[in-house]
Amino acid sequence: MHCHESCTCHWPKSSETGQFFPDDISQGSVLQWFRRFNQGLISRKYYTSHNNQLADSLSFSVRKGDIFLALAIPHIEIGANGPCHNWVSVLVQGELKACQKVDASAETILQLAGYVCEVFGLQITRMFVYAFTIYGSVLRSYLFDRAGVSISERIHIRKNRVTQQLFTKILQAYVSMGQVQLVFNTNYKYAHSDHTNGRVFLPTLRNPALNF
User: How many of the other CB atoms lie within 10 Å of CB of 13?
Assistant: First the structure.
């Protein structure tokens, strides 16, 4: 697996992230695992909204993203207090729960779909949104478009070394995706200028001169 050309990350080694997903599957323990995982990432990182709602909601909801991938903000750690992100900055959306009995339930899918609707509402050129859930030690991946969703089979993260490695590779794949893999409509481009040079319009970039 190769990084997108604009990705400056290096993948964390097992000694940096911990060999296996935590035995204690409380949200705090899982976020601590993601904090270690983030140490190997530079341009994008996984964040949580902590107890703050994500800003700029078009539905005026109080939704709080458990875990999401966004462009890295210097000196901001996962779980930091304060509204550091908003829905326009979410690249991949996630949801965490300690109980795996609700995995892939109708309630789960509707909750995740509510988050994705916020992303679609503000990222007007976004055609698909990737998402994932970690319920207990069970992972599922989701792919939403504006009409529905495709759902993967469940992956038991702690089953063995292979499933643990598959889990981290999925997270790494999300980080490495470029604008095409994240399914932004590449027909929309910035007007030519010294900074944008006709680049694809990305609503996640408030400053078009930044690298995606």
Answer: 8
For 145-155, how does the pLDDT look when each residue is reduced to its tens digit (9 = 90+)? 999 999 999 99
What's the token pair of residue 201?
Answer: 């319009």
Residue 27 belongs to what domain range?
A: 14-176
How distant is the alpha carbon of residue 73 from its chain centre? 14
Distance CA 104, CA 121 (A): 24
Q: Are 164 and 21 in contact (CB under 8 A)?
A: yes
User: Helix, strand, or coil here: 92?
Assistant: strand
pLDDT digits (tens, 9 = 90+) for 56-114: 777 666 666 789 999 888 767 676 554 567 888 899 999 998 888 888 888 889 989 99
Is residue 81 one of the residues assigned to a domain?
A: yes
In a domain, residue 196? The reply is no
Average pLDDT over residues 161-180: 93
Q: How many domains does the chain have?
A: 1
CB 96 within 8 A of CB 43: no
Collapsed DSSP state (helix, strand, coil) of residue 93: strand
Can you give the pTM of this predicted structure? 0.81
- Please spell the DSSP secondary structure of 174-209, one letter per residue: HHH--TTTTTB-TT-BPPP-TTTTTPBP-TT-SSTT
CATH of the domain at 22: 3.90.1570
